[in-house]
Design brief:
The chain is α+β, with helices and mostly antiparallel strands. The chain has 14 helices and 7 strands. Among the domains are: about 100 residues, no CATH class; about 110 residues, no CATH class. A hairpin with a 4-residue loop joins strand 4 and strand 5.
Length: about 325
């Protein structure tokens, strides 16, 4: 820790950088304001922490680190002071609070199972029947037999049927997929995917669909079969909400504009980061389909207003060790 001098607690300055003597992992900080015997500091980890008198003396002057965090921090503070509109992001914890209001036991409770996993008459949103159907229709033995016989349309028919019976893929995309011409390469690509779905490549399926002049190679069309065949290893990407989720859990996340293998791996990293946070919060998902539904349920447009209220309430939650208040991650900050 590069502490150069203890700051005079009576004269904090926004021109200086500070560190907390007991929380080096928070990074450097900029003084924001003082009132009611409390002082607020904006930290490089994205948090704005408010300390009571008697505890803000733990903030000491320091020199800028060599990792550029001080420059990023000052830019964030300037943007905040200038009134520049910045995207407000929730945390996974905020999302979980919202989820638990409707599903008190999370992913293992009856309400979640009935709504999302499947109970009684099958609905398109039910995941377990969709998994079972995908494994049945995309059975590698049946696909290999049809491929060997030159019946290349069989794989495409089965593939389309699987996607038609789930809400993971918009119906408009399925209709476009039905216009795809069956080819030997597409039949082989679907067979290879079915044989080893855990290691299946989005690139391989995408190339085959493009070669078949398939008009539907959206994120959902490409990733839904992967997650249905291997739900613990693959994620179905719903770009409208996964783009937001990526910004929540990964620093400097830039949503891929078009489906690609590299872009898909970035979304898998997003899903894994969400999974790890949910596990740490005591609500581990069963598989990647639970993560898909968690992201959609908590980040869909209809949930935005309530999620914003939860996020705002958490900004003034009392914290231990003399911290009077703490905000969630500041927009645009590392980890936000």
């Amino acid at each position: 820790m590069d502490i150069v001098a203890e700051a005079d607690p009576s004269e904090p300055s926004s021109d200086l950088l500070y560190r907390h003597t007991k929380r080096e992992n928070w990074g450097v900080a900029v003084f924001m304001w003082e009132r009611d015997e409390k002082r607020a500091f904006h930290f490089a980890d994205g948090e704005i922490r408010v300390f009571k008198k008697g505890f803000y003396q733990l903030m000491v002057e320091t020199i800028p680190p060599g990792d550029g965090s001080a420059d990023r921090l000052r830019a964030q503070v300037r943007a905040s002071i200038s009134g520049k509109k910045i995207e407000i992001l929730p945390t996974v914890g905020d999302q979980l609070v919202l989820l638990l209001r409707d599903y008190p036991k999370g992913f293992i409770g009856g309400p979640w199972h009935k709504m999302h996993r499947g109970e009684g008459r099958r609905l398109k949103r039910h995941r377990d029947p969709a998994i079972a159907e995908a494994k049945k229709l995309l059975d590698p033995v049946a696909l290999e037999k049809a491929h060997a016989a030159g019946t290349y349309n069989e794989a495409l028919i089965r593939f389309t049927e699987v996607l038609k019976n789930t809400d993971l893929v918009p119906s408009a995309h399925v209709k476009k997929l039905q216009a795809t011409q069956p080819t030997k390469d597409l039949s082989l690509a679907l067979l290879e995917t079915a044989k080893d779905p855990a290691k299946a490549s989005l690139r391989r399926l995408q190339a085959a669909l493009v070669g078949a002049k398939g008009p539907a190679t959206s994120w959902q069309v490409l990733t839904a079969p992967l997650t249905l065949l291997s739900p613990r290893n693959h994620i179905c990407v719903r770009p409208s909400v996964f783009a937001i989720q990526g910004k929540v859990v990964l620093p400097r996340f830039n949503p891929p504009k078009r489906p690609s293998q590299a872009g898909y791996q970035r979304y898998v990293d997003v899903a894994r980061a969400v999974e790890e946070e949910l596990q740490a919060l005591g609500h581990a998902p069963v598989d990647m389909l639970d993560i898909h539904d968690f992201v959609w349920t908590t980040l869909r447009p209809a949930a935005q207003e309530e999620l914003a209220r939860i996020n705002h309430a958490n900004e003034t939650t009392k914290a231990p060790e003399g911290i009077a208040e703490t905000t969630t991650k500041a927009p645009g900050s590392p980890g936000a």
